[in-house]
């Protein structure tokens, strides 16, 4: 019995030593992360207080006449369920004569082709001339960048045939619900920028309070706070892949820089939209840079792109793993870093996903070890030593930072989705953390596989519902 107690004591002593080391590691990075987010908060509050970050409201609907023709690319692979409602709604919401939609699909995806064809057919049996179907002869899925480049090639063919030049390229996904005022707003903002991004407003799936809901929390936080700060400070603006437009002059510069006429989108990238936005999004000698535009329509609705995001854990993990790999791992290789302190900071923020996952995993391991030690103390088996003052105050600081983050998230999400969703956003933070941990592990595995020559493919999310199927909230 004495030997058993001695062995248990040694085991608990080792657990306490491990906990101390993990506390030092996690505490350091939690403090760094808290200061990082606090800097964004201070900048955001200052911009709000000075009126520079005010969300403007339109007094009346914008003029539907476009300054120049705009080509909308909608790449699709196995999206027969949602691309029909998406295209029908876009064609109806955007009656602009200067709009041309290029819907990309694959030769081995006849269901999606049929859905696109049906969406372009009018009630009288005629075909809407503003919709062009682009069939990729390479069997899918390739990559999203490859599909977008096929749309670009089709646009060039039409320009030569029709003797005109499109002013800009706009990107949307097959599951998106566009805002009626978005196209006119983007067209207007392209007068002052080479790249325009409007917010993304996820729709929460009623069957998934937690998984689909955490997308609402994260996009609202990013597109109501961080992106506003980045835009006002002049940092590079990452493209979200939807609701973003690029001027033709900027795309021409990208093609010239790459020395390839295949198209402006990197066919080897998993997040080609993010990469393109970062390359164009900073103003410089070559162009006008990017703009993030947060505006409300005259009816009070946010001019944003709505969509249902994954509502199952496995689908959310796959999607976020693709984002982490494309931004954190591939982005490091393809975009490198920057000598600008501001830009360097923002790229650190973009690529922190894997490190955040490690720190979060450490934190949850710390919770388990602490519970074990507290249980041992309560039963009289073992008495842990007092924590060093540095760690003690670090825990207080990180706790206060967590409370502050919860307050900010409650305010941002509650203002956009309702105060009950604001409260739910605080409760959903552990769900987001778990998804982040699993996604980072999957992203690292995929990245290592790519380094071994496996190659990239479009590991996209399957969608079974479009916001047009039900009346959007808000």
Automatic annotation (TrEMBL):
The chain crosses the membrane at residues 355-376, 391-412. Gene3D superfamilies: Spore Coat Polysaccharide Biosynthesis Protein SpsA, Chain A. InterPro entries: Nucleotide-diphossugar_trans (IPR029044). Residues 453-474 are annotated as: Disordered. The keyword Secreted does not apply. NCBIfam families: PRK14716.1-5. This is Glycosyl transferase family protein. It comes from Croceicoccus marinus.
């Amino acid at each position: 019995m004495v030997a058993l107690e001695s062995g248990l004591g040694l085991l608990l002593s080792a657990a306490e030593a491990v906990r101390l080391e993990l506390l030092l590691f996690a505490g350091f990075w939690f403090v760094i992360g808290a200061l990082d987010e606090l800097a964004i908060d201070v900048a955001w509050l200052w911009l709000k207080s000075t009126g520079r970050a005010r969300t403007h409201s339109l007094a009346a609907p914008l003029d539907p006449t476009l300054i120049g023709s705009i080509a909308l690319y909608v790449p699709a692979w196995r999206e027969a369920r949602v691309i029909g409602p998406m295209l029908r709604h876009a064609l109806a919401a955007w009656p602009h004569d200067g709009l041309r939609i290029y819907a990309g699909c694959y030769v081995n995806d006849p269901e999606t082709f049929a859905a696109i064809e049906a969406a372009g057919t009018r009630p009288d049996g005629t075909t809407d001339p503003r919709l062009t179907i682009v069939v990729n002869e390479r069997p899918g899925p390739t990559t999203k960048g490859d599909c977008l480049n096929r749309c670009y090639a089709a646009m060039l063919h039409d320009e030569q045939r029709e003797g005109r030049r499109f002013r800009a390229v706009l990107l949307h996904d097959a599951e998106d619900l566009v805002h009626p005022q978005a196209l006119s707003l983007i067209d207007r903002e392209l007068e002052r920028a080479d790249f325009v991004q409007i917010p993304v407003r996820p729709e929460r799936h009623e069957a998934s309070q937690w998984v689909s809901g955490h997308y609402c929390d994260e996009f609202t936080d990013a597109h109501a706070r961080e992106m506003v700060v980045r835009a006002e400070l002049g940092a590079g603006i990452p493209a979200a892949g939807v609701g973003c437009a690029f001027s033709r002059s900027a795309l021409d510069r990208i093609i010239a820089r790459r020395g390839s006429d295949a198209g402006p989108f990197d066919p080897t990238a998993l997040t080609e939209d993010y990469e393109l936005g970062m390359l164009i999004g900073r103003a410089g000698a070559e162009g006008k840079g990017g703009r993030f535009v947060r505006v409300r329509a005259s009816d009070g609705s946010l001019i944003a792109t709505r969509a249902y995001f994954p509502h199952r854990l496995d689908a959310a993990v796959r999607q976020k793993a693709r984002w982490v790999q494309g931004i954190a791992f591939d982005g490091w290789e393809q975009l490198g870093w920057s000598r600008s302190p501001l830009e360097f900071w923002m790229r650190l923020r973009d690529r922190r996903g894997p490190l955040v996952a490690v720190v979060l995993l450490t934190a949850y391991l710390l919770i388990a070890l602490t519970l074990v030690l507290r249980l041992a103390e309560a039963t009289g088996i073992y008495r842990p030593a007092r924590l060093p003052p540095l760690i003690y105050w670090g825990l207080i600081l990180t706790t206060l930072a967590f409370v502050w983050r919860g307050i900010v998230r409650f305010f941002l999400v509650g203002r956009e989705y309702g105060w009950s969703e604001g409260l739910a956003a605080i409760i959903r933070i552990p769900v987001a953390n778990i998804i982040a941990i699993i996604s980072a592990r999957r992203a690292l595995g995929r990245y290592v596989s790519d380094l071994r020559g496996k190659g990239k493919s479009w590991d996209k999310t399957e969608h079974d519902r479009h916001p047009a199927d039900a009346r959007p909230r808000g």
